[in-house]
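U., I forgot to send this yesterday:
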Amino acid sequence: GMCDIYESDDPILRPCELLANVHDSLLSQYPDNNIEALADCIQMQKKVLDIPITLNNRQFTIGTDVKVGYNWGERGMVKIKNPDDRSGLIKQLEEIVRGNRDNRQTT
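Result:
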């Protein structure tokens, strides 16, 4: 999945920069000036990473958690509740971006 994201020619994924792969986590960055494009990128990454697996004639998917933030680490990241819900995802992203801008203005 990581290679598919990195090698993709899809215009939605082009601004995405993969920064690190640690154990089972990917760290990427994306400009925050277009929330809808960011939401599309998150949903596309999740789709690429949620690969169906077949074992003993049973198919299942190991789900992908999505966290967004400006600082890598547990306290700096916000878990996205339902990244498949585009409108809810956009709302959460707007809150995260607004919170970051408010924090920058007060410091």
